[in-house]
Structure formats: C-alpha cells, structure tokens
Protein: FMN dependent NADH:quinone oxidoreductase
Organism: Aeromicrobium wangtongii
Amino acid sequence: MTTIFRLDSSIRTEGSVSRAVADTLENAIIEAEGNDTRVTRRDLAADPVPTDAWATAAFAGHTPEDERTPEQQAAAALATQLADEVGAADVLIIGAPLYNFGVSQHLKTWFDLLITDPRFAGGAQTVKDKPAFLVIARGGGYGEGTPRAGWDHATGWLRRILEDVWGLDLDVIETELTLAEVTPQMAELRDLARAQLAESHEVARTSGRSVTLKLRNAA
Ligand SMILES: Cc1cc2nc3c(=O)[nH]c(=O)nc-3n(C[C@H](O)[C@H](O)[C@H](O)COP(=O)(O)O)c2cc1C
C-alpha cells in the first residue's frame, strides 16, 4: 500500500489553484498506484496549528518529560502527531500559495512545530529520498527580468527545508499569474496565465504517474 501525505495551506477552498493542481497530482498517483492508496490529509486553513504550540514545544524539548506542564505535554504531543503523519508517508504533496511575498503563517507554524520533533530537526534522515511535490501558486509573476524577480521569499525557503534539510526527492510545480483572471491591470496576461495553469496540470499528471517508478526503485 502507498500512503500519500497531502497538506494544503491555501486559505481558499473555492477556486484555489494550489489545491486544484495538487488534486490532479494526487489523482494521478492514486490511478497509478491503485485503489488501496491511502491519503493522510492536513488542511491548515480548515484546521490551523495553534500559533503558540511551537514555542511551547520548543521549551518542552529542554524540559525533562516528567517536569513538563500540561501545555508543554500537549504541544509536544501535537508535534509528535505531525511527525508521525509525515514520517509514515511514502509520498508528500505540499500546497503552498505565495502570501505577502512569503509563506502563510499557517504553513510556517506547521513547519516550525514539526521541526521540534527530533525526527525532523536539522540533519534528521526520516524522510530522506522520499518523493515529494511542492505545489506553488503565485498571483503575480516573478521570473528573471520581471520587476518583482527575487520577491518570492516562499519558494527558496521551502526548498531549503524540504530538499536541503530533510533531503526529500523534491519536484516543484509552480503556477504564476493566478490573479490575472480577476485583475483588470493583468488582462493582457490572461492567455499566458491559462497556458501556465494547463501546463501545471499536465506536469502534475505526468509527475503523478512517474511516482510509481520512483517508489519501485526505492523499494
Ligand atoms: C492575503 C493574500 C496575500 C497575497 N499575497 C500575494 C503576494 O505577495 N504575491 C503574489 O504574487 N500573490 C499574492 N496573493 C495571491 C495568491 O498568491 C494567489 O491568489 C494564489 O493563487 C493563491 O493560491 P490558491 O489559488 O491556491 O488559493 C495573495 C493572496 C492573498 C489572499
């Protein structure tokens, strides 16, 4: 059986590009892997990780277990639960919109709390070489030579953690210009935006099918 860990962080449930592309990817993996594929979901918009859990868990890590406060015990238990979810997965799908030129506070809080678990601290090998997908959606355009090149402070940070710290076998599926449809000043970019979105779904389909090969090679 294959287990997919699916995380969403778009604050939209309707019209979310990251959720839609992640759905295409997830469905392609299930189609390739078979119906007994299990999906563990964490939706950070519907069910955010409490913002104070990270600091509490971080201090719990420096406190002997039998001296922890009830709050520290609860925060450490939540960190363990997040780590169990990710650690048990064969494939990771992480949806991450660009918000205010960075990641959402929900997503940052999830990472920070997870990293308090020793299995995900720097240098840990828990998920090393597992296939993972980062599904990014950005309202604007950030390509080389555009006025806002270098303003996307989400993708680089996510790559550092997922690829360099955790050692995942990471593919990034990026869709830009998602605001073109609803922003009059971006009207001339709509054809380009539609083409990019179609391309992202196609890449998601192809990548989903190729996961089977990666999992067979890893077995
Ligand atoms: C609160 C908020 C902040 C945003 N900030 C940015 C931003 O800094 N840069 C950008 O290109 N798009 C920004 N956007 C647009 C989103 O990146 C875009 O709508 C993206 O498609 C959201 O992902 P989703 O479609 O999965 O919901 C922002 C959207 C919201 C709601």
About this structure: The mean pLDDT is 96. The chain has one domain: 3-218.
